Amino acid sequence: MLSKKATIGARVPKMNIEDAPLTSFHQRLTVYSSGGPFLDGYTLSIIGVALLQLGPRLDLGAVWSGLIGASALIGLFIGGFFGYVTDRVGRQLMYTVDLIVFIAGSIAQIFVGNAVELFILRLILGIAVGADYPIATSLLAEFAPRKHRGAMLGMQIVGWYVGATVAYIVGGLLIQFGGSEAWRWMLGSSAIPAIILVFMRKGTPESPRWLMSKGRKKEARKVVKEVFGENASVAEIAEDTQETSFRMVFSDGYLRRVLFVGLFEMFQVAPLFALYTFGPQVFKAYGIAQGGFANLGLIIISVLFLIGCIPALFLVNKMGRRPMIIWTFLAMTIGMLLLGLFPHGPLWIIFVGFFVYAIFSGGPNVLDWIYPNELFPTEIRGTAVGIATSISRIGAFVGTFILPIGLNTIGIGPTMMIGAIVTCAGLLVSIFMAPETTKKTLVEASSVDNG
């Protein structure tokens, strides 16, 4: 046992924050950051239910239905480029500004009078949510210890599916009890969680990694000590940083990574977002009963997507990023093939197809949030995540836009076969391009020498 004198003279070892324990701060930040994905899932899903009413009210055809359903995705594409802004001015400020824009746009939807107005407002909502993706996830990644980083980032997709599930529940209740103008309240309801989120995020500190990258070492030390304790040091998060620039994102070392993340996300979310946006119409095409049963079916499918994320969160470190994305894409392709090959039943095969696709989508869904934030350094993390998100939303827009047109022209079977081909393309991208970042520090994972 050390004497009092020896104890006083002993040097307290510095804490490496990459190996810090999980704290209540990390848990709160994970929840706050998942607010953006929650709003995304809610906004995208509620429009699918609202279209059942607003389509006839605004006299929408297949083209306008597709445009309005996909308008938020166009906004997400634009909003992704705000990652560059957050790399320039910081994570903390943009963390709140985007939500204020989202709230205003949500409330304005209540008063729309035509398809053009609704298209523009949902475009604005998409921009706000798209901006939040690189902001919130960069902030979360830069605070996360490496042992918990995969689960913390992966939890963002849980927020997305919770938002989607809540949207179907709210939409179903309003369809049942809200009258002929219920669609207005459905669309405006997204303001409520956004307002709550603004107050929850108040007081979130700036990223110490971003502060260090801008030479603001004193501020970085203060944040690190407040979050991790007095014996924490900023030394191990110091990087050989460069000035934030688009040129660096598209340099030889990082261009391949941008393409990998953008392409695998694009091929994953194109069928998924289309199914979520036009879930009621897809169920109708399969001959599944409409009304309350159909809405219950959508809730069940949404819950399956959510459940599929749970094992992925636990296995992403044990199984590894690369094996997980390859095997789950393979299973998703099989599920989509079942939906395409058996458009007229039997009913149990259709539900098996949905089940397999939904459950195994958990792997790529979780990695959507992990890979982009691990593969790029601090000075371009937000920029790269935003660009990759924007690339992915091109596919999401195309899938969402053409799905109602496909249902009306070639039918549900061929439409789902196209979805299977797209999902298989994601499998091929993963086989040839997916790197392994498991158990690496953020500096190691983002180094161009890693894969």
From TrEMBL:
Keywords: Membrane, Transmembrane, Transmembrane helix, Transport. It is a multi-pass membrane protein. Residues 29-438 form the Major facilitator superfamily (MFS) profile domain. Gene3D superfamilies: MFS general substrate transporter like domains. Pfam families: Sugar_tr. Its main location: membrane. Belongs to the major facilitator superfamily. Sugar transporter (TC 2.A.1.1) family. This is MFS transporter.
